[in-house]
Amino acid sequence: MEEEEETTVCALITDLEETLNTQNQSHPLPFTLPTLRNLQSFLDSNDPKILSQLLSNLSSKSFSLSSLLPPLTSAMDSAPTHLSLLSSKIYLSLILFPNSPVFSLFNPISFLALLRSLRRAVKSPHYCPQEGNSSGGAKKRKRGGIVACKKGSGDGDGDEGFFDARVFLCVIERLVCVLDLIHLNRFPDSLKSLVQTIVEILVLATDREMGEGFEILAGLCSKILCQVLKSEHGEEGETAAEVLKALAPLILMGKSQARSFAMRFVKSLMVGAGKTSDGVKKGVVNFPRYLAQKAPEKAEPRGFAVEAILEIVRVMDVEDQGGFAEYVVKMTQGKANLRLLGVDLILNLMMLLKDPFIGMDLDCKLQDSWGFKCMEALIQRCSDSSSGIRARALSNLAQLAGFLSSDDKNRDVLKEVIGFGEVEVEVGVNDILRKRCMDEKANVRKAALVLVTKLTAILGGNFDGVVLKTLGMACSDPLVSIRKAAISALSEAFRTFSDESVIIEWLHSVPRLITDNESSIQEECENLFLELVLDRISRAGSEGTMPNQSTFSDSKVKAKDIEREIGLLFPGIMVLLKEICNGEVAPWVKKICTSLGKKKRLKPKMAMALQNIIKISESYWASNSMPIEKWTAPPGAWFLLSEVSAYLSKLLDKYRAVGELKSPCPKEYMHEDEDGIDSSSVAWASDRVFLLQTISNVSVELPPEPAAELAHNLLIRIEEFNMHSTEVTAHVKALRTLCKRKALDANEAESLVIKWVQQLLSKASRILEKCIEGDSKINKRDAFFTPPRSASRKRKRAAALSRLLSEAVTAVYSIGVLVIICPTADTSTIIPLLHTIITSGNSNPKLSKLPGPQVSLKQTAPSLYIQAWLTMGKICLADEELAKRYIPLFVQELEKSDCAALRNNLVVMMADFCIRYTALVDCYISKITKCLRDPCELVRRQTFILLSRLLQRDYVKWRGVLFLRFLLSLVDESEKIRQLADFLFGNILKVKAPLLAYNSFVEAIFVLNDCDAHNGHCGSKSSQTENLLFSIRGNDEDSRAKRMHIYVSLLKQMAPEHLLATFAKLCAEILAAASDGMLKLEDVRGQSVLQDAFQILACKEIRIPSGRGSHTDAGDEEEESVDGGASTAAAKRGAITQAVKKGLIQNTIPIFIELKRLLESKNSPLTGSLMECLRIILKDYKNEIDEILVADKQLQKELIYDMQKHETSKAKSAAAGVVASMQNHSSFLSPGACKTAGGTKAQDNSNENPQSESRVASAMADAVAEARVRSVLREVNRGIATPPLSSISRPKLKPNQDSTGGSD
């Protein structure tokens, strides 16, 4: 054996001698593979004798052991992967060899080469896992593929770039051992490089599927990092800082094995080391702050950063946790990305750390605790200038409120912070909610609504009225998510406390959403109505008890006292029932009850509870000896019972309902005029209507005899024609329902209905004839008596005529109701009478020859006149031939009538005609649209709603002047109409007719200015009066503002490509027309059109977002996730858009130049508007206009000169105004007023030289103009394109004195 070892040593010495003798000092040659293998096998023996023999042989050749370092270093640096790793292993083995001269073998150059070898090895594309090295057929992964691993690969055979995990781990193991022998405190660069290499190895190894090999590698790397933290390798604090700085990218990256290793190392090993080393502890304490500064801005990576920071902070000491919390508070006043991160950190700190409201000192006040400071900072960020931060702060505050509400102590602290305690706060939560629920950004509004939901239980009775109204408005928001959030917030408020204002707002906002386009909202609306209204009434009604005796000791009991007592018995229920029957709420309640009934979700106890409430109310009234004829049921009780009874008819007390109907009508209400009816009589009539509907619903359950008796009584009541108009329809429908349900078959039911309908029509016609004849006779008789008869006889005659007129009005209304339920009824005797009424007193000589009253009933009996038109319209709906003859008469009356009530009814009838006889009414649509400018708000609103419905259902088309006339509703005097118009244009038309705004935009400019120069407007057949009616002429500020509001509303509906096309159309059809002389600039209307065009081209709504927004609004984009395909498509669209914009500007600038010369030649006042518009265009499109200005230097100089001249004149006037105001202000100062020396001197100079004022103004103007023009055209003059977003330095936000930096 000894002979073999001697032979091996000799062979090795010979190889080394050959290699070392051929070395080049500047570029040493690496050892060959055989030499390295021999040297490795020699070192693997680990025999000190062999080492001493090697050293003696090297010494005999004049070499030392350190002479091996240059070729080994060269092999580690330049050799293939397997040779590099083998060289690294040999280098470390030499150092670890027993009795090896460590200090002579270790040097920074070789050590750095070793580290480079390790990095290069782990980057190798070929990889053989540790398990497969011994198998020739084993397979290995190559990032995404499988590569065969050859035999002997563990020794370096085969592929030169091969990476063997076993050899690599062996090198790392020996590196761990070497660190016990060497001290790197003298080599700080080597220490830093070592730390960075270890971290880089972990990151690169993550990409490889090493299996258990990664855990082994992570353990070795952990040992190395622990070694370098020892004091012999340098100052512990500095080393810890280097290690943490290197680990930061691993922690901030996504979930991976490397990130998990870094977190374990910091939380376990470094925190543990910090307990014995102040330097390490300081590094760990500062590490979360460093991570916060390096945290990425995108949502998901930022979330990983927050998670990592919180994990580290949780293992820190309590004092250090408080210090970090205070640092986070300061972060919320810094740059936008730090403010956003701080908002996220505050939420997690408050939820994860213990006792946030307990200070570090026992005597610490609540305001001094870090939790209170964090809450204050979070509330301040709810008013941040960035919408993304506002939304995130509101959302986090909502989560925090829900979390703190679970604990009584924390809930009290939360009340203090939000402004409902003894501690004074700068901004209360109600102030924030008022603003943020109406924020311009959708995500902010949604977050504010979620916050309202969470704070409802805490706010209690302190609910702000403005916030409540805002929640109601949010229920009609265009976005589905915001509507859902508003419904949830308002319902939570209703569920928590039954305040009257909350109940009213909920009923006016939520039930109407039963007609929402989103089915999920409809379902939610039904569920909430069932829970909050019907179930609540059911519980209250079932718990109520009958009074045994009077509850009042005073004999003088008033109705209000009894109502108050019943209200106390059913808390909140009386308000709920009363508001349900409100005219704005009742239609939606009907729809909800119908939907719930069809789905069989109405519960039997609902009907029983309502009946119980009515019985208890009547009992209270009777027990206090009040006259029963003046009793009325609680408002809304009969209404709601009438709706649910259709689906719960078997559960109702039908005999009680019939008995209620038989109760006589108070005689004092029989023939009383409508205006004279008091509230109790109106409520009584309304209750009878709902009672009749209830009876109709339960009529199937009535026995034959009571049903027949009831039908007979109903018919008698109708024949008297003395009921309130609201009762007539209910009586007729109830009678028809009784006939249909009690008849044996449909034919018998139809014959019964026709029989009593004809009977009623016959009697009604006789009353009408009597009324018309009586009116004519009285008029003729009065004409022959001069002087007139006595006053007493005249009063009797007037009373009789009034009674007859009241019956006639009811009869006419009843005719209309009868025709609706029985269209086949014979109206041949009715039509002439109605014709006589509606044409009475007509100025037409042909009509004056017809029999009938010569004095118009329009003046003597306006109610009869209006009802006659309404009834004639109902008859026309049943008779098409009659409609053809009378529709022109309806249109004529609509145009000339001076009665708003009649115009309103006529508009409704014309809308019904449009549905039934579309072709007949189509030619009159333009005349109907004139009602959009009616002096009565009700008529305008009714017209707008009806036409909008017809347009949505395609009975009317958006063509001609219809769309242009609708535009004026956007600036209507009525706020309700403006809101309806905004919803129509912003939501319905944007989806149904997206091109409508684009196609009609230019024509709208001419129409609104009443200018007929446009081709599309020239052919309009509208009269001059109509054109003036639907225009907003004038150059005054109010007219221009109204027109601009309409233009902006239309631009908001356009897609980006339509905005570009509109820009081009404005230039081609208005600016080019003006420069060519087709648009007369001498005409005031032409000037208004041109000025409007300039304002539109300069407004921000017509400009396409260039994507140059800063990262401050990054939170806005977090609601949406865009995949790679979508982003590629967006980039492609952006490139196309830029190309179109460039071509557009190239065609636009020459038009502006030509028009500028024309306006200057005519000394037109529009030159200023043109220059202002041109300045904004040059500012916004400087990249696209660059080539034009560079190619034509003369044009560039002219534009710069003209713009500077224009800015100078503007600045002069502004500066002169400022100086003049300063002089005026100083003239009011007393002679003894205190002045500064500079101010006194300037004023004295101004008084001595009268021209100083103009000089100051001129100087100020020149400076301002030069600065503005330079800011706009700086890039253009240099020929430099706008730099990309990444190269633009982000502005730093400085905190204000009140620590509200970034707040708006």
Automatic annotation (TrEMBL):
GO function terms (MF aspect): histone binding
Gene Ontology terms: biological process: cell division; meiotic chromosome condensation; mitotic chromosome condensation
Domain of life of the native organism: Eukaryota
Organism: Salix viminalis (Common osier)
Name listed for the protein in its UniProt record: CONDENSIN-2 COMPLEX SUBUNIT D3
Localization annotation: Nucleus
Compositional bias per record (Polar residues), positions renumbered to this chain: 1242-1254
Taxonomy of the source species: Eukaryota, Viridiplantae, Streptophyta, Embryophyta, Tracheophyta
Pfam families: Cnd1
GO cellular component: condensed chromosome, centromeric region; condensin complex; nucleus
UniProt cross-references to Gene3D superfamilies, sorted A to Z: Leucine-rich Repeat Variant (1.25.10.10)
Ranges for domain Condensin complex subunit 1 C-terminal: 902-1072
